[in-house]
Amino acid sequence: MNEYMPYLINWADALWIPAALFIVHKKQRIKAVLFILACMLSLRLQTEIIEIAGYSNGFTGLIEGSVFRRGMIFYSVCIAIYLLLSYYSPRTSGVIYMAASLSIFFMAFVGSMILMVI
Fold it and tell me: What distance in Å separates the CA atoms of residue 103 and residue 16, rounded to the nearest whole number?
């Protein structure tokens, strides 16, 4: 089991997908899963860019720890907020829900990049 632990930890954010299927309302499920997949992809792309540049602890090195862990924590908080807001807005129209999803995604993207660079 210990040999599989790094793989499980690196993909722990995938556990948000089944959680989203149970938390959000029926007409919001596809958009919520796509939001989580976009966050997962963005996290890995941001991490690759920073680590390829040679800064595994961020450009400034002010915060100890890997860039990936900081990004995963920040994206997980943003996904939790997104799912909470989705749960409490069941009658939101599709266009408004998509606009809110994009807004929260860009907030998560920019916030995680700032946190990962530090």
Answer: 19
User: Hey, what amino acid is at 96?
Assistant: I
Report whether 82 contacts 15 (CB < 8 A): no
CA distances 97 to 41, 46, 82, 93, 109, Å, are 21, 26, 11, 6, 18
Q: In this predicted model, what pLDDT tens digit does every residue of 21-38 receive, in sequence order?
A: 999 999 999 999 999 999
Q: What is the DSSP string of 4-40?
A: GHHHHHHTGGGGHHHHHHHHS-GGGHHHHHHHHHHHH
**Cβ contact 36:17 at 8 Å:** yes
Domain boundaries, the chain: 2-117
Reported pTM: 0.92
What secondary structure does DSSP assign to 28-95, as a single string?
GHHHHHHHHHHHHHHHHHHHHHHHHTT-TT-SS--S-S-HHHHHHHHHHHHHHHHHHHHHT-TT--HH
Q: pLDDT tens digits, residue range 54-105?
A: 888 888 888 888 899 999 999 999 999 999 999 999 989 989 999 999 999 9
